[in-house]
């Protein structure tokens, strides 16, 4: 727990902090310097200056550039000044007063903020059932790279997307509208850089329990006025599931710790008492890093092998793999001893082909249309009851994503799962 004035900032896998020296050069008229500290954050040494500003509390400023990029959200309070312009639910709440929210009321507030934008695109669920109905309600899982705000505004260069479409105070409402429309039981997100001031306080009031694991060297920290690092977030409805075990995984490649992470949690269904593991990840991006992604995928699979006790516990893995189906990392997952299948293949005519795209954007380097996002599941223990169809090219439009209609450059994937009544052999 790290205190910032009257607010607190909770960091999982707490870091160590050690005073090391005094540096009077850091003083300014606005603040009083309290010390230079060495911080060990996710096994990465960092150096920061800590300051106090009257009654406002402690603030951290990093020393230097790439070698000292601290988790800069330490310098943020939980309250956004811009948020005060919005109705009550969209203002960052006092942590001591987190009363439940009616999702319909929150959805109405979001739509009020978005009244000048085009309406949401219509997407339909495709029924994929091949057997009798399950005796328990399905488990709805949403996978989505929501586009980090700092990257969308500062690094990604979406040349056909108007700057106004990327404004956080409206874009966050588009993201929330998508989540509220599909009401997932489990939500797996990548590129989350507004966890503490938006998603955690709001979704907790909707009944979700959340976990956030940031990248140790997030590219968001290079963007001026960033909101801290981006990372993976995993939310589940507490009235449906009980947390059995949770693991934050910093992925390795060829024995080296990397900048990519994963969260894996074992949950127990309260209706059926059956357990399963849900994992979320975001692998290394860009062409030329195929072998690196492959190594990260192998490391994740090994971790999941251990967590599921050699595939005894059913598994769902959501992620932006930054890899087309032709890449080695995809083949590793498809041929793993964990017996995984990719859920969105079931939307194809032959049941064996991935969608033609899950992301579609135009950057300064040109137009990019790729299939990078997946929901993997234990094919002998779980069945896909339905899957949300993708946006059509006509719906996406000639300027592609993101847009006034859609808040991210990646499409959300949503599936309904049920347990097979009698799982056979290995899961």
TrEMBL record:
Residues 142-410 form the Endonuclease/exonuclease/phosphatase domain. CDD domains: Deadenylase_nocturnin. Its main location: cytoplasm. GO terms for biological process: circadian rhythm; nucleobase-containing compound metabolic process. It comes from the Eukaryota. Its cofactor is Mg(2+). Signal peptide: none annotated. One of its GO terms (cellular component) is cytoplasm. InterPro entries: CCR4/nocturin_mRNA_transcr, Deadenylase_nocturnin, Endo/exonu/phosph_ase_sf, Endo/exonuclease/phosphatase. It catalyses: NADPH + H2O = phosphate + NADH; NADP(+) + H2O = phosphate + NAD(+). Its EC number is 3.1.3.108. One of its GO terms (molecular function) is poly(A)-specific ribonuclease activity. It is an enzyme of class 3 (hydrolase). Keywords: Biological rhythms, Cytoplasm, Hydrolase, Magnesium, Metal-binding. It is found in: Cytoplasm. Interacts with PPARG. Phosphatase which catalyzes the conversion of NADP(+) to NAD(+) and of NADPH to NADH. Shows a small preference for NADPH over NADP(+). Represses translation and promotes degradation of target mRNA molecules. Plays an important role in post-transcriptional regulation of metabolic genes under circadian control. Exerts a rhythmic post-transcriptional control of genes necessary for metabolic functions including nutrient absorption, glucose/insulin sensitivity, lipid metabolism, adipogenesis, inflammation and osteogenesis. Belongs to the CCR4/nocturin family. This is Nocturnin. It comes from Equus caballus.
